[in-house]
Amino acid sequence: MKTDSRFKTLIKSTNDVNFTLFGEIVTVPKGTTLAAAILSNFGEASRITETGALRTAFCMMGVCFDCLVEVDGNPNIQSCMVLVHDQMVVKRQIGLRSIGISKDD
Amino acid sequence: MTDFDIIIIGAGPAGMSAALTAANGGLDVLLLDEQPHAGGQIYRNVKQNHSKQSWFGKSYSSGINLVDALNHIKITKCFGATVWRVEANKRVLWSQNGESKVSTAVHIVLANGAQERPFPFPGWTLPGVMTIGSAQILMKSSGIFPKDSVLVGSGPLLYLVATQMIEANCPPKALLETQTLRMMINSLIHLPKALLNMKSLIMGFMFIYKIKSAGVPRYKSVSRLEAQSSGNGSIKFLFSHKGIRKSLTTKLLLIHQGVIPSTEISRSVGVDHSWNTSQLAFQPIIDKWGKTNIDGLYIAGDCGGINGSEAAVLYGKIVATKILYETGKINFNLYKKQSFSISFSLFFTNSIRLFLDTLFAVPQETLSPSDETIVCRCEEKTVGEIKLGLNEGITGVRQLKTSIRSGMGQCQGRMCDAIVRGIMLNNISQNDINILAPKARSPIKPITLGELSKMKLD
Amino acid sequence: MLNNQSEIAIIGGGVVGLSVAIGLLQSGHKVIVCDGEDSDARASFGNFGLVWGQGKGWNFAPYAKLTVDAIAAWEDFSKNLNDLSGLDVSLDQNGGFEFFTDPDKLNNFISMLEIQKGHAGNRFNYEALSGDELRNQIPGIGSKVVGATFSQLDGHINPLRFLRALRRAVKVLGGQIKSNASVKKITSNKDGGFSLILANGSVTSSEKVILCAGLGAIKLADQLAFKTNIRPERGELLITEKLGDQLPFISSTIRQVDEGGIQIGGTHADVGMDDNETLDIMVDLARHAVEIYPALSNVRVLRAWGALRVMSPDGYPVYAQSEEYPGAYLITCHSGVTLASLHASILSDWIENNVRAPNLEAFNENRF
Q1: Is B400 near chain A, with CB under 8 Å?
Q2: Which of C211, C252, C256, C257 is closest to C235 using CA atoms?
Q3: Total beta-carbon pairs less than 8 A apart between chain A and chain B
Q4: Could you tell me what percent of chain B has a pLDDT over 70?
Q5: Domain count across chain B
Q6: ipTM passes above 0.90
């Protein structure tokens, strides 16, 4: 079930990036961190831990590792530490990462 | 021959001011920062926000001068640069865009700042619970503001962020403060000295005035905190206030319990650390010049002990001044004159510190939370599991970590170490406890085997 | 001053000391284990968790035999430990590989295993595989691997859970584990028995004392007139983030802990008590892992560390009774995990010197 974003966007941009986030095409300003893009578009979990617990970004500064997602097929990426780019494909990090081809979510 | 005279790790207030002082004195500087822009967390995106609304206040805007000044011929700046290993021989390993690099210098200045103190209570891992610092980062770096949030905790940042949110017309629904009357009384003894930093005191009162004027409800001395998921992504936040159990429902619970030094780099390179009994955190042992037990390795700013951004700028200057003198770039008289003037300013800036540390003391339930609370967010270990380990006769952090796996996940203990220590202090007899800073190991941030395997070493 | 009477005092609360304690407790002895400081070397925190035979004792027949005995005893031991501690150490004895990227080293190792096989008789066996045979068997093995040896006997456990299980088992059996109990001095009493003086000044007395202190024994061995020179040997390791999928092999240098993380190790350095990780070795270990199994290339390293092995002069275990101080024993080895199954069983017979006592003469320190 989709949960609305817990944030509202106050600063609009004219220079936008479009990419695929959790199966939806989203538009955010260039220079946005991926975690910020997630939080401004989704209120629900961006990661599910190995025991099934729901998590989202927590510290936003690279400390807590709770904002892990899969970016362009690379698992366990700290979304607060990467900037969005056009055509990026971002999936939730579900459970432990695997080696080999990622599963669809 | 080394690649640089100085490598500075962290482009926050301390790192930027150290870089500028060193560069102006004629030294070649490499400035590394993990973020995409200079500023650190305090002046995050200050340059990018320059033309936008001034929600963040004058103190924030002032950071732009430092950022602009970094365009200096003697400063090589690398952003998105994650330092993953620092060696006592002044070799720094860092990763950028998936490729690792080696840089060497005569001096290294660690200016990697602080992190928010982990603030555990049942439910603090739920989506919808974030730190107040993280909300401020989102406000500064992405222009997204919390909707109908509830702020809980203690410390100057609580009031600052609440004020910034009010300025941006996104006021919090409520402010819940863990600070108790006892803490306020305890802090009074430090108030006379704090008056020497009148500017900061006035700023604090201004924040509180603005929060009151905006009509944001404040609950003081809250305790027994618990967050529950309450459907549709909302958080039901329960707390005790004046002896009554109350609850508030919010989309976003923002929590904060002060900040602690980021010590993983200093610990991994072998700097000696001590336990700061008023700030309840480990900090590197440094002299007034920021010198450590490792020759040529200096520490500036909050990673050396929490004193705030204004002090960090001064610490950055003093460290660089010392290095300029030691490398013969300035003479003794100039060095004495400059360092005296910086120390003088530091005395006034830091005069408020003990007052703040006591006023915003860490509550007992944060130091030793209830058994069901998750301690290690990565490995999902609870307080109860830690206590079980302690009951098995464990008396040291290494034994605890290896036995329970707390601190062995992705964050390598950044989020749980302070909590684990609180639990140990509360559950082991003082005779048995031996507080040592846990050893940190490289890589300080994870890097892939492939990246590591491709490194070319001389 | 505290004065604790105990029949047997074990100095050392690591894998070796605790395993020995379990055997003695199960034979009905009263045991106290003196465990040192949190910051001690503690090889038990750094070990690889292998229950391993390949290469063990190829030039020392008694060790080859001891190792196969130990491997065979592990299944029962792990069940016993599970019953006592409530912890499953995830024993996996489905065979393990030694991979080679250098044909000479492979051939050399095969000749060693042949000799080892001669020592252990039909109880030890192995297969040699060419690179292609190996890649056929395990898709994904790197092209630089020229071959491997495989032994059905080899396996591993979760080393840290094992240590916790041992602690719990000792307590369940009524043993006492004293924490922060660094033994500074051992004296032999006139009327028999020993007094252990701890760093905090307290004294523990016992009829017998068993020195299982790993590198901590360096300072204590001569107080009991043992002459074994124990030395540290640093091994470095990498540990990766956890993987959801299971690595299709274990080897003595690359293995996956049951929690999902991969340990990469197997280096040797003579650097005294320095347990720091070094960049050169970290890079070597990463290259090794990627060469053997290229899919590991995008797996992240969370932590590197060094740990100190406990080495006797010839690298083999020492089981010795002090000639000058009867009732004092020295037990030291660097394969504490593999040998734990025996340490927790037959060593109590050896210490009691009863009819079932194993012949451990070959491991006496007279050989040095």
Answers
A1: no
A2: C252
A3: 128
A4: 98
A5: 3
A6: yes
